Amino acid sequence: MTDHSARTPADAPSTASLPAVIPPDDKRFIRNRWLRWIVLGMGWFFVLLGLVGVFLPIMPTVPFLIVAIWCFSRSSKKLHHWLYSHPTFGPPLRDWDRYRVIPQRGKLFAVIGMAGSLTMVSIFVATSWVLPVVMGSIMLLVAAYVVTRPSHPPVRIGE
Fold this sequence. Notes:
Largest sheet: none
Helix content: 55-70%
Structural class: mainly alpha
Number of strands: 0
Oligomer: single chain
Strand content: under 5%
Order of helices and strands: HHHHHHH
Distance between the termini: 45 Å
């Protein structure tokens, strides 16, 4: 019988191989098997929406991937790791996860997209002033949130 109490920190299993700080499996995963499959399917759906956003400039990519990585963190450790460490999509996801960073270009596209959609709804859809005012108020709050996030991860001296 081995004595686990004599274990040193160097002997302890390393969590460095995990790409993100996520809760232990028993608290992270959805226990209901069917619900976990649904959340996994939603994760893939949001990955597909994010991939569409790669090719369509009017559709965002990273927000959909943030939702996808959340879904994967609740349903599949392997897919969470894959998306988080992906060479193309991983860096913006890690910047968001660690520092809540939204790149300047993303902020610009988000604000322009919101203004454009508000303009289109106001011209072609709205029959009264209520819809544009409600929609504009919500978009103003979202735009304020987006614009006030940092644009770059913090710079550490010595790196």
